[in-house]
Amino acid sequence: MADSPLTLAQATAQLTAPGQMFETERLTINGIEMTVWKHAPANLRQVLDLSLNHAARDFLVYEDERITFDEHYRIASTLAARLVALGVNKGDRVAIASRNLPEWVCAFWGSMATGAVVVPLNAWWTSEELAYGLTDSGSTVLFVDEERLERLYKQLDHLPELKTIVVISDEPGRRAYVDKKHARIELVGYEAFLGQIEPTATPPQVDFDPEDDATMFYTSGTTGKPKGAVGSHRNAITNLMNLFFIAQSSALRHGANNVDEQGKGLPNASLLNVPLFHATGCLATMLVNTASGGKLVMMHHFDASKALALIESERLTHIGGVPTIAMQILDHPDFRKFDTSSVRSISYGGAPAPPDLVRRIQAAFPVGQPGNGYGLTETSAAVCLNNGPDYVERPSSCGPAVPVCEVAIVPEDYEGLEPSPDLVLGPDVVGELWIKGPNVVRGYWHKPEATAKSFTKGWLHTGDVARMDEDGYIYIVDRAKDMIIRGGENVYSVIVEAAIFEHPDVADCAVVGMNHPTLGEEVAAVVVLRPGRVVEAEEISRYVAQRLAKFEVPTRIFFRTLALPRNPQGKVLKRELRESLHDQLQNQS
What we know:
Among the domains are: 68-208, Rossmann fold (3-Layer(aba) Sandwich), CATH 3.40.50; 483-588, GMP Synthetase, Chain A, domain 3. It is 30% helix and 25% strand. The chain has 17 helices and 29 strands. Helix 8 (233-254) packs across helix 9.
């Protein structure tokens, strides 16, 4: 008789035992006592050096361009030397504003190696928003692609701290166009700036401390001005260790699945279909591949057909992003024509996933493990990940928190600075999710009031409404600001969306609150149907009414032929959606 699989607690105890790779210890960091990974690398420079263990492997693949780990290490080292020659010192900010390109990755590691704080800027931002990010961060050097430079150029006179712009070509194999000049800011092409690469180049000698600032990711900015979340070397490396721990725990409990039909190991190869300027793309994907020797395959923009071709040609093992990306791949009419047998992991986060997606992934990828994770910019990406059999068993959960993260469910009107021991617990208790750990950033750049509001005694107030079951699995119920109050009843939009997603003719949906003269708010649903399907609003209402309470059933249903508006992280821009619905109703009246 086969041995019973280890429980989560048993696997955690085994992996974190004294002397093991994932042993933990308690430290006081910036006056806050917390649990940390005892054997983690001390800084990101050490991670860059570790990448040479995979020197001959392909690291970056884009179109016809391929860069090995050794080539990347020499390029990043050379870029670091060039930045030092410019006068970039430890703590200076170096910004990157570009779509996903190999040069983005090289610029990140080259800047980091100088001790600079890397500032990834949202490549979808407008000219004014890019200028805001550069001004707010005080960046002195900017790596930018041609498209972003064209957008930003008219703002250059208003960026007094910016001294140098390194321009990246939008097209592989072509030198960047640097025709325009500026009286004060030097503009130079990436190739000219890089110059000759020494085959034995190494990064400059810099004294790093784990608590030194390393990154500044800007929050999504769905309300108000974006805030720069300042992350340390320890924050980024904790995320790296978190993901390694989750992978090892899953392998220990359920067996390693990263093997081919002959039982031979498959080299990790990830499809990068989320922006590098987001913590998920940079810290949860790029950083992990750098440390582990995984191939990173990039796309100019996401296209399901091209993604399937890359899965086949590059033997991709990991697909990540948001649920809609997985659904687009599965829905592609030519899905069965491609060899997708290499895929071992289909994980996503950043947006609610319909439970039926788990079943569809299992059917389409027999050896691929589905997974759904949770994290924020302020937690340096991953806090938890639910994958494999655990996810099949609990498809609505994003998993248990990693051992170094403390989590608490706190009443939304709670006024304490840290969770109290007498807080009511239980699987039915719903409240705001608070998180504490070495992956939580120190705060927002030059925004003390916003920092004081969101961070208290090391605890991050996420703004997400959640619950935890008796085994510690976290369920994100809703964003606090997306909760709809209908006639005194709390309606959590993610629950209604999950019910609508179960309808076989629904491709996408979003639920928002709309003003109502007597109820305060009413529940409205915006639905995108699958191609060729025709469904009446009454059918959607009846379908939801069979699954949810009466007060949760949408009283207004709008059908939309265009894709739902989303930010680069895949989250639906509900404020924009509400405004468009309001305008639509105004035009009808």
